[in-house]
């Protein structure tokens, strides 16, 4: 306790306060002339004293509250008293320490369990009593009772601010918090930003993270029907501003919102190129409205997540999932993905088999692994991590035969024959184990790094849910094209740091076409290809590591047709040629990778002008996209030497100066805004 607080405790010691005054006692001690004279002689006017006058009872409360904060406690309004009879009004009020009184024990019932939280109340007797008087003509409030003796420790100044009475969020801060919530940032990030804005040390805002969470929760406790109407109004408003925005919804028999799905123009364009492999994540809920949330996400050419669409459902039945899949296909002009990854949801599995019969359905491995601790931690104990490592080894095998043999050995070794989770995993192995999936394209979304990236992307607009209508805005901010292009430009700049490791013409050729993300994957295979030997056989080549005398992969190559395939199926699985195929191409004096094995989805130009023109037939838009492609090529070529970079920097500076001298037309500004929306 500080010295200042200690001095305040002993500054007033009126004899009338030596007795223990019960706060439940309705009697009061009227002030005496002696008491009034004593209070006037007190040097520290900040301490309440008998006879102190206030114009209103609120002013008295504020004075006592300020005093309490300096001493290390807070106060609350305890009891009011009035004269007998109706309409006589309030004549006396009690303000007490926040730890006054005792919480009565709750009677527990079987139907409603009690939380039994520990109470902070300990029967503290500190109080201030004020009484209404008209002695001098006009009504005023006078202190008629005051005790400042506490039966508990008082808080230090750096602790007292955490008491609920002193934690407040101003209207300006509330608006700021709601604005942050719409952007999808976490509450922790909100606190750090506001500390920086207000130039205060961490932890010194007048409110805590819990207060912010409670504030956001209060905005969620709204009428669900009104929220649904607001969401529909928001979607219609967005549709009016952007005709390429798409949404669908259904109403139940009571005309209430049942399901709603939406997608943005930029998402539809991205899907046209990167919609070959899609994750449909249905493991999240909007807790404030108790609605299952489905998110369609893919992987772009820079190895970054890209958003395709979103759906809110009334329930998780096959009927609801079927509606969601139909709506999504409608957004994407009927184009179904090659592969779709989901959670282990039986209703969703049945809906996919009905609505997407030509699409390969697989389970997301990271959604399965996330359940392992609850499934196997208690069963395996100290052997859990050892078992998990063995599971991953089997998961990554190439041969189905090796997987089957290894699985049986693992089950025997860890005694998991009768474990229902292991039984279910094995029965669905063709939907999650890589040996069964290597002939299907998954865009690398099964790797740990990419799964974390996708989860982080999804959390961007789940971390701070506010109102339902605002959620659509949050998603829009999270998938904003400018943010995505900023990340892509950063990746493109990494081209300057790419070094050729093999000196092979195939490597240098691929470096000018593929994104850094895709080229790095191909380069790994090119380096490994040098360690392999190829042997001609009757219908192709046998390729194996130079240290091995048996085994290997069978590669079929038809130079005239430009077709090459390998029994490892890596190209089908990832879109990147394997070391076996690259070895055969090198042996056959092929100095460039055939064009069909440098897929558009992994090239540096993410959206060809023709595709963009189809989505938004606008000559200005197409020319802007064409200019972006030229700039991309300019950066790539200039980064190859210092001389090239110097020339490019000089000439572009001159060109930029000339462009800035030209006038800006209103139509050009509109077209530029249209380009940003379409992109």
From TrEMBL:
Domain SWIM-type intervals: 553-589
Location of this chain's protein in the cell: Nucleus
Major localization class: nucleus
UniProt keyword annotations, A-Z: Metal-binding, Nucleus, Zinc, Zinc-finger
Residue ranges, compositional bias (Polar residues): 18-31
InterPro entries: FAR1_DNA_bnd_dom, FHY3/FAR1, HTH_FAR1-11-like, MULE_transposase_dom, Znf_PMZ, Znf_SWIM
UniProt keyword annotation of Zinc present: yes
Segments of this protein annotated with the region Disordered: 1-43
Pfam families (alphabetical): FAR1, HTH_FAR1, MULE, SWIM
Record carries keyword Zinc-finger: yes
Function of the protein: Putative transcription activator involved in regulating light control of development.
Similarity annotation: Belongs to the FHY3/FAR1 family.
Name recorded for this polypeptide: Protein FAR1-RELATED SEQUENCE
Organism: Stylosanthes scabra
GN (gene name): FRS11_1
């Amino acid at each position: 306790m500080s010295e200042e607080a200690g001095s305040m405790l002993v500054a007033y010691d009126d004899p009338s306060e030596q007795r223990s005054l019960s706060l439940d006692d309705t009697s009061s001690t009227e002030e005496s002339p002696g008491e009034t004279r004593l209070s006037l002689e007190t040097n520290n006017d900040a301490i309440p004293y008998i006879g102190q006058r206030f114009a209103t009872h609120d002013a008295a409360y504020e004075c006592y509250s300020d005093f309490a904060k300096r001493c290390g406690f807070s106060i609350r309004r305890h009891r009011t008293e009035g004269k007998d009879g109706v309409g006589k009004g309030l004549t006396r009020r009690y303000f007490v320490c926040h730890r006054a009184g005792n919480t009565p024990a709750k009677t527990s019932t079987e139907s409603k369990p009690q939380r039994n939280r520990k109470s902070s109340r300990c029967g503290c007797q500190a109080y201030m009593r004020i009484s209404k008087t008209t002695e001098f003509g006009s009504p005023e409030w006078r202190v008629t009772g005051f005790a400042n003796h506490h039966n508990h420790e008082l808080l230090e100044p750096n602790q007292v601010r955490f008491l609920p009475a002193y934690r407040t969020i101003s209207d300006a801060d509330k608006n700021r918090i709601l604005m942050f919530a719409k952007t999808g940032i976490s509450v922790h990030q909100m606190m750090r930003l506001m500390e920086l804005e207000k130039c205060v040390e961490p932890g010194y805002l007048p409110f805590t993270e819990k207060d912010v969470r409670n504030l956001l929760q209060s905005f969620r406790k709204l009428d669900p029907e009104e929220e649904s109407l607001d969401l529909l109004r928001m979607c219609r408003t967005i549709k009016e501003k952007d005709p390429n925005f798409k949404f669908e919804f259904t109403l139940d028999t009571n005309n209430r919102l049942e399901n709603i799905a939406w997608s943005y123009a930029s998402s539809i364009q991205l899907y046209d190129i990167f919609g070959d492999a899609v994750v449909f994540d249905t493991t999240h809920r909007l807790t404030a409205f108790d609605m299952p949330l489905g998110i369609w996400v893919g992987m772009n050419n820079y190895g970054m997540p890209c958003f395709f669409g979103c759906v809110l459902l009334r329930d998780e039945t096959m009927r609801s999932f079927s509606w969601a899949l139909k709506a999504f296909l409608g957004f994407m002009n009927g184009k179904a993905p090659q592969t779709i990854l989901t959670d282990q949801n039986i209703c969703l599995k049945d809906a996919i088999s009905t609505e997407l019969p030509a699409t390969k359905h697989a389970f997301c491995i990271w959604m399965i692994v996330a359940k392992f601790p609850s499934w196997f931690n208690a069963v395996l104990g100290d052997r859990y991590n050892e078992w998990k490592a063995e599971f991953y080894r089997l998961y990554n095998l190439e041969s189905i035969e090796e997987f089957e043999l290894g699985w049986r050995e693992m089950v025997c070794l860890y005694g998991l024959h009768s474990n229902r989770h292991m039984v279910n995993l094995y029965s669905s192995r063709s939907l999650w184990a890589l040996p069964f999936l290597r002939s299907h394209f998954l865009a690398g979304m099964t790797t740990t790094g990419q799964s974390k990236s996708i989860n982080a992307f999804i959390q961007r607009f789940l971390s701070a849910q506010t109102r339902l209508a605002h959620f659509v805005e949050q998603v829009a901010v999270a998938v904003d094209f400018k943010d995505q292009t900023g990340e892509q430009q950063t990746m493109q700049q990494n081209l300057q740091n790419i070094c050729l490791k093999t000196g092979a013409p195939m490597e240098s050729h691929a470096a000018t076409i593929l994104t850094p993300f895709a080229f790095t994957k191909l380069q790994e295979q090119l380096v490994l290809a040098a360690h392999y030997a190829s042997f001609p056989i009757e219908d192709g080549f046998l390729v194996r590591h130079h240290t091995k005398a048996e085994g290997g992969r069978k590669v079929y190559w038809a130079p005239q047709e430009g077709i090459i395939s390998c029994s490892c199926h890596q190209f089908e699985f990832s879109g990147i040629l394997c070391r076996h195929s690259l070895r055969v191409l090198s042996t056959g004096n092929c100095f460039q990778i055939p064009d069909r094995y440098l897929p558009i989805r992994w090239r540096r130009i993410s959206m060809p002008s023709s595709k963009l023109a189809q989505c938004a037939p606008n000559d200005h838009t197409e020319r802007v996209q064409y200019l972006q492609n030229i700039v991309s090529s300019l950066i790539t070529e200039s980064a190859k030497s210092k001389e090239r970079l110097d020339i490019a920097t000089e000439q572009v500076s001159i060109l930029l100066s000339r462009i800035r001298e030209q006038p800006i037309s209103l139509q050009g500004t509109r077209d530029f805004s249209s380009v940003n929306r379409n992109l």
